[in-house]
Amino acid sequence: MLSGWHSSRQWPWTSGIGFAGGRAGPASWLRACMVADGDRMFLWTPVLLATGVAAYFAVGFEPSPMILWALAAVLTGGYVALRQRGLLAPLTAGLLCLALGLAAASLRTHLVAGPVLDKPLAGQLVGRVDAVEETDTGGRIAIIAPRSFAGLPANRLPRRVRVNIRLKDMMIEPGAVVRLRARLMPPPEPVMPGGFDYARQVWFEGLGGVGFAFTAPEQVEPPDGAAAMLADMRTRIGARIREVIGGTAGAVSAALVTGERAAIPKAAAADLRAAGLAHVLAISGLHMMLFGGSVFWLVRAGLALVPRLALSYPIKKWAAAVALVGATFYLAISGAAIATQRAWIMITLMFVAIMLDRPALSLRNVALAAIVILLWRPESLLGASFQMSFAAVVALIAFYESETVRRLTSSPNRLGLENLPRRIGAYALGLAFTSIVAGAATGAIGAFHFNRVAVYGLAGNMAAMPLVGIVVMPMALLALLLMPFGLDAPALWVMGAGVDGMLRVAHEVASWEGADSFVADAPFLALLLLVFGGLWLALWRESWRYLGLAPMLLGFALWGATPRPDVLIDRDAALLAVRATDGRLVLAAARPAYTAEQWLRHDGDNRTPGEAARSPDMNCDADGCVYRQAGRPIVAFASTLEGAIDDCTLADIVIAKVPIPPRIRRSCGAELVLDYFDLWRGGATTLTFGTDGGIDIATARQMRGARPWVQRQFANRNQ
After folding, report:
1. Alpha-carbon distance values, 353 to 118, 332, 368, 391, 395 (Å)
2. Residue 160 carries which DSSP code?
3. Are the C-beta atoms of residues 475 and 481 closer than 8 Å to each other?
4. The model's pTM
């Protein structure tokens, strides 16, 4: 996109830059850097596209797709006309990328549009099973494409729904048409203003409802079609791995091959997260590279054993072609999640580059992969997976571009025993560098999204990743090759042993004091500055790259600058939290547990909901709860109308789980009154006490705006 306007590494406008201070002045230095880095301008194309995508999701209204695409068309014509006009060329190209990002996100939103339930419904559900996954309790989670549900007309029937089937030891096959009784609800809203919007995520997955089954599914039609056969093969592979390996190691091993993670016990997942190894469970670039790389190495090594082939034919290109087929097969059996599709695109570009005699791993290939993904699935930008995977890849390639680093981590070509210590040392140093660089690149992004920092992640990765790279993934490949012949048990046993070793490492590291630390929410500006500074540092090659350290330092300085709300109210008026004078939240109850856990996590608080609900300042009875603490407003949380009336005489803020009639509200002596209907209209609500005595009210629906994934009847009724 941006590479066509420059020639011979010369930026068109640099000839007009002055030289204040002489040839050794700052202007001269900047001009020299800009000229030397002229061929790197293309690397900023996906950054500008991503900026346009982010702008689309940031606005509180739905932009017109026609206007956005008309703007993109006008800018395309302008770029073609002005591409040889000095400074106007890159400016027009940059604006075009921004417009394309906006237009692509808008188009994708409307292409995936489908009915979404607007209220909870229960009834008979008949539909085709698109996917099914076993849980750690023996139940199933099924994605079903409904044919009928609870008497809904066809134009209001969701395209897909997610159903939790808690019954154990029952069969449900992908591709089959089933009948069951279920209760389905609209996708849940954020638990607090600015929180994770699950409804937006599942909008792009085509899910219009979530819920649970009352009865076991009854098969109406058997599975048929290629998609059903593929899903059934994936299910059987996962079951086979769990059966042969068994236990937690079997569940984790199956997840590494099929992407089915629901069967992994929560304790094991927590250990992996605390040890900085949670990325192992997500089939992304690491797994695709290990799997495809193993196929590439095996095929090339096998062909090299035949001298005539090795000397007369391009066996490296043949191996790349076979590895691409293997990577595509892995994409299919892993469930083709968004992160896996992204990894497949990146490794495809790598193998195609090998077949075209181009560098396999380069920032240009990463930029091409990012452009494809941002235009194909723009919503990927919002996910931590996209951000962390590209941050890690960009940082690693930029780091290993250094000749000094390559020399330190290179190993002798000869395989003699005398070179073994050096090869082992180079591998260990490379692993350490990789863990440090990838951890540094993704740490802030992970902390922003998950409010967690794996303090000892380097130790966990240094100890466990050799097992994953040398034992687990190669044995997974071998097991898949042998599985059709029933000879996979030995390979699976070795794979299970490697996974078991990884789990032992994770458990040990997670047991260290402070291994899993919580951090409070950061403002979006802090993440933006960190990402921009990191990209400036990684994408440029000359010395001006180090200017990127300034926004990164500013981003870290702003990390704790977000004012934290003083009162949090659940979207269903089911829970209240008040901030005490010590800065920690006091909960009115420990349930709903999910909401309580999310509030504490966003606050950087590692207490359990039960611990946060124990406070002498929060007094509860049958009519509700009242929070009293010296120096703080009295906050009442009424469960009944009688309790709300009583609270009006003593509390500064009254929040009621029930509707309050207007006449009672008018006579209430409290400074602020919120009842059930206020929360119904606004969703999750926070109150922040101002220094002037005022109260700032923020609601989830105000933050979400009038967007397609926001329930229609609420879109324009924010308070």
Report:
1. 48, 22, 12, 21, 20
2. E
3. no
4. 0.87
